């Protein structure tokens, strides 16, 4: 059993599970708006994994485009996290302002995805270990660093605003998502 086969099985099973979990959350989200954003995160995770599977089946262009759509993943999670945290008894004003600006954050994420598609930020390669994998071009690192910088600014505002441990934890987890899903 090769590493490529194991990776492909993992990506396909994660996609299926992600879609099932997202479907369940959407069904439950009739009463809870924050679950809609969390289901968006699960759907994006499934799409990202399907992109890797597409590479294994010769659909290179489709696979690269699906993988490069990953900036939407942390955006959905940020949406969920802010909706979840702001439901507390006392929400700091900056958190409410951030929540109100989520459409702009989604817009920026979509812009980053489209920009990475236009400039050809990813390339398909092979190696001795993996049959195919996505190789990010140097320009991809520059493009994908934009969300990372935004989350770092969010953390700075949390710290300067005397944010609670819960809020700072959300910011740190968002940072880990952005850095983890760089492609």
Automatic annotation (TrEMBL):
Keyword list, A-Z: Membrane, Transmembrane, Transmembrane helix
Keyword Transmembrane helix appears in the UniProt entry: yes
Transmembrane segments: 6-26, 38-56, 76-96, 103-120, 140-159
Identification of the protein by name: Histidine kinase N-terminal 7TM region domain-containing protein
Lineage: Bacteria, Pseudomonadati, Pseudomonadota, Gammaproteobacteria, Oceanospirillales
